[in-house]
Every structure is written in structure tokens, then in C-alpha cells.
Write a structure and sequence with these properties.
The structure is a homodimer of 339-residue chains.
Chain A: H1 5-21, H2 27-33, H3 40-53, E1 56-57, E2 66-67, H4 69-79, H5 87-98, H6 104-118, E3 122-126, E4 135-144, E5 147-154, E6 159-165, H7 171-185, H8 190-203, H9 209-229, E7 231-234, H10 236-241, H11 248-260, H12 262-270, E8 278-281, E9 293-302, E10 305-314, H13 319-336
The first copy, chain A, binds a DNA duplex (30 and 30 nucleotides) through residues 24, 26-28, 38-42, 44-45, 47-48, 58-64.
Chain lengths: 339, 339
DNA sequence: CTTTAGCACTCTTAGCTTGTGAGTGCTAAT
DNA sequence: ATTAGCACTCACAAGCTAAGAGTGCTAAAG
């Protein structure tokens, strides 16, 4: 399966030229731009071989070659060389991060912004799952008559809140309930919240039982809920820059699926990643609608759980650059998310 | 400026037909579909009059008429009849709301979703400005060594949080600081937060002064910050459904501007609204990039401040329906946001 | 005096034809 | 093994034509 040196060089040239121009690349162009010391005719022969081996495709009988999924895969695995972001660029990105060190959510939003502005692709950040989390704090605050604001701080610093109905009670009473909730439901692993709440309910047969039940339910619901909420995306307009989207219908379908959010989540769930900035190319993607695209994604840690950041673009993607940017943003996140 | 009955009927027919089909409408079509008891020739004459008066345009010398901005305006002001949402539809929307009565932010997100799914337009919700707001609660919670989580609850129930650096301190110390902050900075109008914080600083020359300063700064920053954060959008893919976007470049430009968010904010700031679901059509929009579109937007109240919900679509928009949906969502919001 | 039928004219759009250019595969010479 | 040469393929753009929808005007009819 190994390619001899010259074939490898030609494959590399084809991929990089096609990535740059978006046009099928011919033997002439390869000979001219990437001087390999051989004539177009020789390159033609080699390209015919590469096609037979499945690394290149032809859009139609005559006229240049484009890389196949396999060609991209070989390029990504063996041929591409790491690139470094320019000084200005990394400075630009870092400054964006620095200005947003407020809370986790803003930081993730900043990441999306950095990614989508630094590339021509769709950027996404999938917040960490809650599964392994406990709660750091639970507060019940008076909101208006008959309503209270429930504020919850997870151990990774993500804050959630909701409004619940409560029987009318004094400030002191509410503080009492609030303290009780804190004592019994904080620092308890999620799978035990339910039983703890039941315990609490059976002991407290007071008028607060309704409140306790509501809080417990909300705590439980957060597990799934927040998964649907914690997806940030940006740069949808970037996709329209790609020449492959000259016709609107193709993009529309994808956009719809992306916007609703389930798509990215599906991808991240079904995908089994291996290397750090993982790359999936075209048909390698499990999800149907993405089989014409590539995804480059990485991981960041927050507490005990992990989140994902990624770029979705055409297969004709600048992989070295995408990898460099994902790597850099991973670093930034892990740096600013320390806790 | 008033139009005689027949002209009005014809204008109405042209607008509604054009809205439905997207194709310039000719005299024949009007005569056939909206039986007005006159022949195409008569309608041709009337349409020529309407064109001269500025209510209709011709894309090119021969071939049907399309409404001008003025034509749409007249239609919207005088001709269109209110529509009601179907029972299923309003039930669908309300259920979406009901399932999301958790916190303000989820509710606003649900609104965007409802709006964009119920229409073919871009939906947006602009959260209420903070200007007139005070803070209901301020908490400083231990996060990790040297860091604390600052949680702030505004009087309208919006929760903000950020992480700040603090000198190492015990749980009791932090509670002391937290209480101090609460006593001095809650229920204080925003324009006084700064002076209050100064007072506090001058009295407390302790090691906590750094913390107090940070908190004060954050409180101040929220005013602008949250304006940039509190914009929710959905349904960008809807725009691609519109036949006017058969070519990609037009939409890309708009999408980019929209995604970055400043566009909608600008519109809402520059626009002076009058009626409740306000409608601005084409050139009536102050913002350059929107002069080819129309916006229908309404207001909801949250505490002392107000937010906006709206739809952005082509001038060829189904105005009666857009108005009905905006109205309905306004109601929903005002119902579920009571405090 | 308003309405209508008839007709010549305009303009867009889709489909077809043609020419050009980029690129290929094959063969024969180096 | 490499390369030059050449015939061949195919996409794409440009130009052309025919069809169709719609108009404005004129003259007849109510």
C-alpha cells in the first residue's frame, strides 16, 4: 500500500493544488508548479497509476484529477506537514480568548468565534457532558410571590437556573429550604440525586415537599437538557464561500440539519476518534449528510468531563491549517479553563 | 392618495399572488384567480394607473407587475386582513413554550425556535436591555484555590456568572465578603453601582478590596456585555428557501452580517417603531443591507425593560401570517415571563 | 365614457449548436 | 524508463432561435 517517493510527491501536489484552486488538476499544472524534474507525460502515467490504486478520481473522462477520499486519507496520514499559525494570527486568537475569561459559556462562544473567523469553515463547540458531574451549590432565591429562582452551580463552574413555583413563604423559610437543599443535594453524584431526594422527601413531610420534588426533578433533567443546550456554532456563512456550494440546495439541506443541532451531536457521538485532532473524511463519516464533507475536531477537558471543538468543511479542506488551529484552540481552552 | 375600490382590490390581488408565487403577476392571472367581474384589458388599464401612482413596478418593459415598497406599505396599512393561526399551530407553539419554562434564556431560545419553524423567515429575539435594571442577588462562591465563582441575579431573573481571581480565603471569609457585597450592591440602580463600590472600597481597606473592585467592574461591564450576548437567532436556512436567493452571493453577504449579530441590533436601535407588531419594508429600513428585506417585529416586557422578537424575510413576505405569529409569541412570552 | 376584443410588439427563458481549450491516453522515438 | 507528438474527449461559454407570457394601443361595443 506504500507509495514510492515520486507517486507520493505527485499525490501531495494534486491534493494541495486542488485544495487551493478547487479545480481538477492536470499533469501540466503539476509539472509546472511543483517542479519534480519530470515531464507532464511521465506525471500522466503516474497519475493513471494513482487513479487505478484508488487515490485519485476523475470527474469525467478527460480533464484533470481530484483526490479521492482515500487520497485525502493518505495525504492526511503520511504526506501533510505541520504548519504553525503566524504570530499575528495566534496573537489575534489569544486576545479574543483573553477578553472573554468570564464564564465557561462565554469562553466557548469565543472559541467558536475564533475558529470561524480564522477559517472558511463551519465551527462548532460541544460543551462537556454532565454525566460525571456533581453539584457545587444549590440556591433557592425569592423571585416574586409564589415563585422562586433556583440557581445551580455545577462542579465545573457551569451555572444553570430556572424558575419554579413555590407556596408563599417568608424570606427565612426560603433560606431554610435553600440550606436544606444544599446540605442534602450538593456534592452528590448525579445518579444518587434521585435517591437522596427521595430520602429527603420521606423525612420532610412538610409543605416544602412539593418544592423539593421540583428541585430534584430539575436536577435530574439537567443531565439531558444541557446536552441540547450546550452546542455553539458559527461560520455558517463561511460554507457559502466554498465553490462546491454554487448551488443553493445542497447547502440548505445541510444548514437546516446543522442549525437544529442534532447533526453535530450525532456526529460526535457516533464517531470513534483516535488521534488528537481527529479527522474524518467524506464517506468515513457515519452521518449521511456529512458524507460529502470533512471534519477536524479536538477535545478539551473541563473537570472530569470532556468537550469537543471542531471544524466542518468541504473534503477539499486545508487540513494542515485546520489541525493547527484546532490544536491551538485546544491549548487555549485547556489553559483558560483550569480549575 | 386613497385608491378607489377596484384599484385596491387589484393591488391586493397582485400582492397576494406575488407573495404566493414569487412570479410577476399579469392582468390575465388577476382576472382569472380573483374574479373581479372585469376583463384582463380593464385590469391592464388599472394596473397601468397603479404603476404610475407608484404602487406597482415592472421588472422589465413587458411581463407582469410586482408590488413596489409603497404598494406593500399600502397593502399592510389598509388592505390586509388579520389571520388567525390554526388550532394545531398555536397548540404546537404553545407546547414548545410550555416545555421550556425553566429560565429566561431557554424561553427566549424556544421563542426563536418556534418562530423559525413556523415560518420561512429568519427569526430573532433580542433580550431586554439592562439599562434600567438593578441586581437582585450577588453571590461569591468558592471555586478552587485562588478562584471564586461570582453569580449575579438581575431583578428580571437573568442569571450571569463569571470566575474571578481572589486571594486564598476560608469558606467563612468568603461568606463574609459575599454578604458584604450583597448588602451594598444589591437593589442599587446600575448607574449607582460604581459610586457604591467606591464607597465600599474606601471603607474596606482590607485584603478584600481587590475582590470588591473586580466585582464592581464586572457588574458595570454586564451592561454592555450582555447586550452583545443576548441575541438569539434561528432559521437562517429558511432564507435559502426564498427564490430570491437562487444566487448564493446575495445571501452570503447578509448571512455574514446577521451571524455576527450587530446587524439585528443596529436595526432594532435605529428603527423607530409605531404600531405593535411593527413592519418595515425594504427601503424603509435604515440599515443598508436590509433594504431588500422586510422585518416584522414586536415587543415583550421583562421587568422594567423590553425585548424584541422579530422575523426578517423578503419583501415578498406573508405579512398577515407574520403579524399573527409575532403577536402570538408576544402573548406567550408575556404570559410565561410574568414576575 | 367605460369596457373589451384584437393585434403587433417586447422581453425573458430554455434549449440547441458550435467553437475553444484543457487534458487525457496511446504510440513511437530517445 | 522517459518523453514528444498526436488524435481524441469533454466541459463550458457564447451565440442563436423559438416559445410564451404579458403589455400598450386602437377601435369597436355597451
Amino acid at each position: 500500500m506504500a507509495l514510492d517517493e515520486r507517486k507520493a510527491q505527485i499525490l501531495k501536489a494534486v491534493v494541495e493544488d486542488y485544495v487551493k484552486t478547487g479545480l481538477p488538476v492536470g499533469s501540466r499544472a503539476v509539472a509546472r508548479k511543483y517542479r519534480l524534474g519530470v515531464s507532464p507525460a511521465t506525471i500522466r502515467n503516474e497519475m493513471a497509476d494513482l487513479e487505478e490504486m484508488g487515490y485519485l478520481d476523475k470527474p469525467h473522462t478527460s480533464s484533470g484529477r481530484i483526490p479521492s477520499d482515500r487520497g485525502y486519507r493518505f495525504y492526511v496520514d503520511e504526506l501533510m506537514t505541520d504548519v504553525r499559525l503566524s504570530r499575528e494570527e495566534s496573537a489575534m486568537i489569544e486576545s479574543l480568548f483573553r477578553s472573554k475569561i468570564r464564564d465557561v459559556v462565554s469562553l466557548l462562544k469565543a472559541t467558536v468565534k475564533a475558529l470561524s473567523e480564522a477559517t472558511d469553515y463551519l465551527a462548532f463547540v460541544l460543551g462537556p457532558e454532565y454525566v460525571t458531574t456533581t453539584f457545587e451549590a444549590v440556591y433557592l432565591l425569592p423571585a416574586s410571590v409564589g415563585r422562586a429562582l433556583l440557581v445551580i452551580v455545577s462542579d465545573v463552574g457551569v451555572v444553570e437556573n430556572c424558575i419554579i413555583d413555590v407556596p408563599p413563604m417568608s424570606r427565612e423559610e426560603m433560606e431554610y429550604v435553600s440550606n436544606m437543599l444544599r446540605r442534602h443535594l450538593c456534592h452528590v453524584s448525579l445518579d444518587q440525586v434521585h435517591t437522596k431526594a427521595q430520602e429527603l422527601l420521606s423525612r420532610e413531610t412538610s409543605r416544602y415537599s412539593e418544592v423539593i420534588a421540583q428541585v430534584a426533578e430539575y436536577l435530574m433533567s439537567i443531565t439531558e437538557e444541557s446536552e441540547t443546550e450546550q452546542l455553539f456554532m458559527g461560520g455558517t456563512a463561511n460554507l457559502l464561500n466554498q465553490p462546491e456550494f454554487r448551488d443553493v440546495n445542497r447547502v440548505q439541506d445541510l444548514l437546516e440539519a446543522i442549525e437544529n443541532g442534532s447533526l453535530i451531536r450525532n456526529i460526535m457521538i457516533t464517531q470513534t476518534h483516535t488521534t488528537d485532532p481527529a479527522i474524518t473524511i467524506g464517506e468515513e463519516n457515519e452521518v449521511e449528510k456529512v458524507k460529502e464533507f470533512s471534519i477536524v475536531y479536538g477535545t478539551f477537558r473541563l473537570g472530569q468531563s470532556a468537550g469537543r471543538i471542531g471544524l466542518l468543511g468541504p473534503k477539499r479542506m486545508n487540513y494542515p491549517r485546520a489541525v493547527a488551529i484546532i490544536r491551538y484552540c485546544e491549548q487555549m481552552l485547556n489553559k483558560y479553563l483550569v480549575r
